[in-house]
Each structure stands twice: as structure tokens, then as C-alpha cells.
């Protein structure tokens, strides 16, 4: 369990990125921070592995204030995946994935074995292991980034807009893959995005943020859609424009679900 207790962050130049943020992120679930640019998503995410320390308040992992933990050890115990994969260009895929394992003192042989294993977990076969990042597609690079985040088998995986820079089809594929991974691996995932559809697809708990890390609403996607807290949330999730309104049309004795644009999206189960 991750807990933010009255956390605030003011940067050296006076920017108040987060004002007063409190929330519990339950273990083995995915919490998604969603909001427009500059609302403090990345700042909140990076507080979990102490890439950023709060100016006020505390972040706790399993009831331990992480300010008391060694920064380097903490960071290596938590998976981190970012938007542009962050892979080292002059290192092979295998070396990139195994980098944290080597830093943790694992032998090269064992690190290579584990890296191969985790590459397979994210859907990359062994032929990619000896390649360099530039020889991979954007989607494959992101998979390597996810593999690296998972290599040390962390309990917590932080993901900062990991699928933001790939085309929509690949993005869709990576999102489905992450859902499968989460089902199999059962991690505590903290995911940042500005895309509300992505948030609703991936999040068990979705946190809609306003500027300064103010929580507009937090809840399961279905609860937010059923009871948006205010007009800001309605508008942010697209309820005000009817974009999420589905209706049913009867055709040949079956109930077809049709979206706001008139496109058939499915059949109601009986
Ligand atoms: N190192 C820094 N120094 C000063 N201000 C910063 C620093 N890092 C972030 N900020 C500011 O803090 C605020 C929150 O930034 P943050 O990156 O957390 O937002 P975000 O919601 O992740 O935005 P985006 O979606 O654009 O990545 C912004 O106003 C940003 O400009």
C-alpha cells in the first residue's frame, strides 16, 4: 500500500506543483493519475521512488515513511517506466533490461537469464535481445522499457505516460498487454496519463486531478461515470458532450449497442 499524507511540493523557483495531497493506493491494484498538463501528475509519481522529495507531508509504503529509507536502494526496488523508454542507446536490449539487476549485484549470467525471461513476458522473442534500441520500433522500445521496469520483480511499478509517444494501434496493443501483465503479475501500479480513455481502461482507481494536484474526483471508472463529482469532472470525462452515451437498437431480434456517433460497438448479452 502506498499512502500520501498531506503532501506538498514547491520547487526551488517557487512553482507550487502540489499543494495538499492525501490518498491511499491499495496494493495489487492500478491507480491512474489523470489530468491536464502541469497538474502535478509526474511530481506525485516521482515522490514514490524519491526522485522528488515532498516539501511537506509524507509518502509511506506499507506504513513506512520512505524519507527514512535509503534513496538509491528504494529507487532500485521500484520499477519505473517512462514515455520515451529511457533506454541507453549504446547498450543492447538485454543489457538495458538487466541494468538494475547488475547494479543490484546479480552476476551477468543470471542477469541475462532473467532479462531473457522478462523480455518474453512482455512479448519480445529472444531475437531482439542482441539488438540496440535504435533497431527497434517505438512500440518494441516501450516493451523493452516495461521489461526493464519488471526485471527486478518489484512490488511497485511506476509508469509515466509510457504509451504516450506511440501510434494509436500500437498503443492499444500495449494497453491490452499491460492489462494481461497486471492480471498475471499482480503488481501495485501507479500510472500517469492525460488520456481519460486510457485511465478508464487501465485504472482500478482513477484520480482526476486539477492544477496543484487537487483531487477533482477519485474512484473506480464506473463510479466516476455514474456520479461525476461536478461539472469539471463531467466535462473532463466527456459526459457533457454525450460522447459516452450509448444506446440500444433492436435489429433482427438482437440488441445492438450504438455509440454517440451512431457506430455499432457491440451486442448486449442476454
Ligand atoms: N524541476 C522543476 N522546477 C520547477 N517547476 C517544476 C519542476 N518540475 C515540474 N515543475 C512544475 O510543476 C508543475 C507540475 O509539473 P508535473 O510535471 O508534475 O505536471 P504533469 O501533470 O505531469 O504535467 P505533464 O502532463 O505536462 O507532464 C508544472 O507547473 C511544472 O512546470
Automatic annotation (TrEMBL):
Gene3D superfamilies xrefs: P-loop containing nucleotide triphosphate hydrolases (3.40.50.300)
Classification via InterPro entries: AAA+_ATPase (IPR003593), ABC_osmolyte_uptake_ATP-bind (IPR051921), ABC_transporter-like_ATP-bd (IPR003439), ABC_transporter-like_CS (IPR017871), P-loop_NTPase (IPR027417)
Domain (ABC transporter): residue spans on this chain: 2-237
Spans through the membrane: none
Organism: Aeromicrobium terrae
Top-level EC class as recorded in UniProt: translocase
A molecular function GO annotation: ATP binding
A Pfam family hit: ABC_tran
Keywords annotated in UniProt: ATP-binding, Nucleotide-binding, Transport
Enzyme Commission number(s) from the entry: 7.6.2.9
Protein name: ABC-type quaternary amine transporter
